[in-house]
Amino acid sequence: MKISDMNWPQVEDYLKTNDLAVLPLGSTEQHAYLSLATDSILSQRMAGEAAEPFGVPVFPVVAYGVTPSFMAYPGTVSLRISTYLAVVRDILDSLKQHGFRRVLIVNGHGGNQPAANFIAEWMGDNPDVAVKFHNWWNAPRTLAKVQEIDPLASHASWMENFPWTRLAGVEQPEKKKPLVDFARMRVKGPAAVRDLIGDGNFGGVYQKSDEEMLAVWQAGLAETRDLIEGPWN
Fold it and tell me: Which regions span the lipid bilayer (predicted)?
């Protein structure tokens, strides 16, 4: 259940019998011909659908992340790592203060990885709270399903092209893009990154069938639900 569909007394009642919450993390950044909010759309939806059978509250997605390399693409918003970690800290501190003692973070953006390291530190200071950091798209079973369909899958390619990340009236290119040279990309600034990767797809075809995408989604749901169920101790 979404926190946006609850009021504070309902949360207070929930906390009398359960202390688990789900927090999605996303990003606002270029995804070639897909929505700039792709990472946020996917993490919010994955968190909501995974938590629904358990009646666990899902907090609104943190829609901005760490993505400095894409700042040459209009619409991208990047937070400094220090800013981002401060936001994550304040959210976790707030959840703890209200009585949440188990938190599943469903992350949809690779650039948010510094938060995983921070969370380990935060739990050291808050040993009464358990936090799981879950990169839903590259968790073992989900990634295996992606590679089973097509091993050439990357940022802004088919693996992120779901019916709910596409834009109305925007056609996807009918080609297979060579994989970007990551070694070169890692040493370039934003403008040079844009020159290197062009439209923003890191490599691979731009779209697969909805049936194949649903198979990836179902793998992600099953894996995320397993984390909600536990173990937590």
Answer: none
Beta pairing partners, 102: 20, 130
CATH 3.40.190.10 is the classification of domain 3-229? no
Quote the pLDDT of residue 182: 95
Neighbours of 189 (CB within 10 A): 11
Rounded to a whole number of angstroms, the CA Rg of the chain reads 18
Q: CA dihedral defined by 118, 120, 123, 124, rounded to 10 degrees?
A: -100
Q: What is the mean pLDDT of residues 123-147?
A: 97
Residue 233 pLDDT: 80
Q: What is the pLDDT of residues 176-199, one digit of tens each?
A: 999 999 999 999 999 999 999 999
**What's the CA gap between 130 and 126, in Å, rounded?**
9
Residue 33: Cβ within 10 Å count: 18
